[in-house]
From TrEMBL, chain A:
Domain ABC transporter positions: 8-235
UniProt family annotation: Belongs to the ABC transporter superfamily.
Molecular functions (GO terms): ATP binding; ATP hydrolysis activity
Matching SUPFAM superfamilies: P-loop containing nucleoside triphosphate hydrolases
Domain of life: Bacteria
Protein name according to UniProt: ABC transporter ATP-binding protein
Presence of the UniProt keyword Oxidoreductase in the record: no
Keywords, comma-separated and alphabetical: ATP-binding, Nucleotide-binding, Transport
Automatic annotation (TrEMBL), chain B:
Cellular-component GO terms for this entry: plasma membrane
Transmembrane parts of this sequence: 85-110, 122-145, 157-176, 252-275
Keyword Transmembrane: yes
InterPro entries linked to this entry: MetI-like, MetI-like_sf
UniProt-recorded name of the protein: ABC transporter permease
Pfam families assigned: BPD_transp_1 (PF00528)
């Protein structure tokens, strides 16, 4: 039997705040297999970011067990298991795009020649060849976000954690980046966890859609997508697509009423 | 070029007001002289006299300019009467003090941002040190160091350092803490060490803050040096020039020393500003 890449069982997390404890995650059970594209969708405050941060060992669950590649999240991070893409590109303004992508490589101690070779490869991958010498402010928002994806891809993490990476972009740019992200996923075979609050985005991208609801943050539905891996943008007009989108919407509504 | 006009206008107004004030403030002496001699003076004679007295209450601008010219361009720089000589004495102590103060300020800031105990233990003392008036403490430092056989450049530099370390430390603490939660989280996802986070994130982020406080610090260093030159019968430096001028009622000398100090301060701040521009531009942080 194949072991899941990410395995959460009974994960709970309560933040102790000044006024009242916040139950951000309640009894989260989830298995993510290698090569899955998983979207987390739900209204804001339902714990999507918190769950992703637990996987990344940026938060520690207060209960339950969580493994990443069979390791604890902390060990998995030290083993360079994942790359993290934040909502904002967060490129360092004093580094060129090239140097920004080199940042994790420098920290991880890659040799110089290999750094150059990797930078070139990931710039190609996100379609930014020729922009390596530019500073972040010289690039559009969409290009900056692509650069930040390249930065997360530069070292060989087999998991990509993305927290609303396209949330701040307009729809046209977003469509294009979604399409590119799918191609990139197909080419690299990475496992991707993707937080969004857009239903079409979740349905278009995912092999597995995790629907969440707030207070306390929990999973209300997990949908295995029947859509093929090959997905042109037009797939969004097919009955299958609309049916899944409908199920997601229902799941969100139920969570809201409960 | 567009902003030259307002600057010139303001300058002209200042000069006009200055002349008017000089005439008004120096006139009593002119009248007293005339009375003693038993002569009448016309208004134009008063104007001419008040702008050309040897020890005016307020020297006229052209007198100060003349004195500045005479004591810089017209004197050998090794002469004791050369403002270039005195300016250099002050400048060298300022630069040494500024270097010491900046280094101390940066090190203190690094300590504070990496060690909570240090923040609680050292910061109150640093703040307390700045509440002591420099005029009170400068003579004590000079006297104490003199009794230990240390005189000349070093005591002045220590006072200059004392005034510049604090703005640098405060600005640098702010700068080293400038990275937001997301930038720090990014470093954590790479399991970066504290040292790596410092060199690759905190230090570059702090640069704009550092330069802002360096400008304050360099001016403060100069003030510190001049104050340190006032007591203890110093004979060299712009501070000593100010003091000896006031001993002998040489108002023109005082004012020209004052202008030299102001010019020096302005030049130092401008130089720091130029270095700032070049550095930030090379870092890609200024357009
Ligand atoms: N560091 C924290 N301290 C206290 N409460 C937090 C913290 N981080 C998140 N929360 C709370 O946990 C809940 C889930 O937040 P989050 O995971 O950011 O939601 P989402 O990403 O789905 O919008 C929210 O109620 C939020 O206020
Ligand atoms: Mg969020």
């Amino acid at each position: 039997m194949k072991k899941p890449v990410i395995d959460a069982s009974g994960v709970n997390l309560t933040f102790q705040t000044k006024d009242a404890p916040v139950h951000a995650l309640k009894d989260v059970n989830l298995q993510i297999d290698k090569g899955d594209f998983v979207s987390f969708i739900g209204p804001s405050g339902c714990g999507k970011t918190t769950l992703l941060r637990c996987i990344a060992a940026l938060e520690t669950p207060t209960g339950g067990s969580l493994t990443v590649n069979g390791l604890s999240p902390d060990e998995a991070r030290k083993a360079r298991s994942y790359g993290y893409v934040f909502q904002a590109a967060g490129l360092y303004p004093w580094r060129t795009i090239e140097k920004n992508i080199k940042l994790p490589l420098e920290i991880m101690g890659y040799p110089k020649a290999e750094m150059d070779e990797r930078v070139k490869r990931v710039l190609d991958l996100v379609d930014l060849s020729g922009f390596g010498k530019k500073f972040p402010w010289q690039l559009s928002g969409g290009m900056q976000q692509r650069a930040s994806i390249a930065r997360a891809l530069a070292f060989d993490a087999d998991i990509l954690l993305m927290d609303e990476p396209f949330g701040a972009l307009d729809e046209i740019v977003r469509d294009k980046l979604n399409e590119e992200l799918l191609k990139l996923w197909d080419r690299t075979g990475k496992t991707i966890c993707f937080v969004t609050h857009s239903i079409p985005e979740a349905v278009y991208l995912s092999t597995k859609i995790v629907v969440m609801s707030p207070r306390p943050g929990r999973i209300t539905d997990v949908i295995e997508s029947p859509l093929p891996r090959e997905r042109p943008l037009e797939i969004r007009d097919t009955p299958e697509f609309i049916e899944i989108a409908h199920r997601v919407r229902e799941g969100l509504r139920e969570g809201h009423n409960a | 070029m567009k902003n030259i006009l307002p600057i010139l206008t303001v300058l002209l107004v200042i000069v006009a007001v200055w002349y008017a004030a000089a005439i008004k403030m120096n006139a009593p002496w002119t009248y007293a002289q005339a009375e003693r001699a038993g002569t009448e003076v016309t208004f134009s004679e008063v104007v001419r006299d008040t702008l050309a007295q040897e020890r005016p209450v307020l020297p006229a601008p052209h007198q100060v300019a003349q004195e500045l010219w005479d004591t810089t361009v017209m004197k050998k720089v090794t002469s004791k009467r050369s403002l270039v000589f005195h300016g250099w004495v002050t400048l060298s102590a300022t630069m040494l003090g500024f270097a010491i103060g900046t280094t101390a300020g940066i090190l203190l800031a690094i300590g504070i941002t990496h060690n909570r105990a240090m923040e609680l233990g050292v910061m109150p003392w640093a703040i307390a040190s700045q509440t002591i008036p420099i005029l009170a403490i400068a003579p004590m430092i000079i006297v104490v160091l003199n009794s230990m056989g240390i005189s000349g450049l070093i005591p002045k530099s220590i006072i200059a350092a004392y005034l510049s370390f604090f703005p640098v430390a405060v600005g640098m603490v702010k700068g080293l803490r400038a990275p937001d939660a997301m930038q720090l989280d990014l470093m954590r996802t790479y399991s970066a060490s504290d040292a790596q986070t410092f060199w690759k994130l905190r230090l570059p982020s702090s640069m704009p803050y550092l330069f802002a406080s360096l400008k304050v610090g360099v001016a403060a260093s100069l003030v510190g040096t001049i104050v340190a030159e006032l007591p203890s019968g110093a004979t060299r430096g712009l501070g000593a020039r100010l003091l000896s001028g006031s001993y002998y009622g040489q108002t023109i000398q005082i004012w020209s020393a004052l202008f030299a100090a102001a010019l020096l301060a302005a030049s130092l701040v401008i130089i720091v500003g130029v270095i700032e521009k070049i550095t930030l531009r090379r870092m890609g942080m200024a357009v």
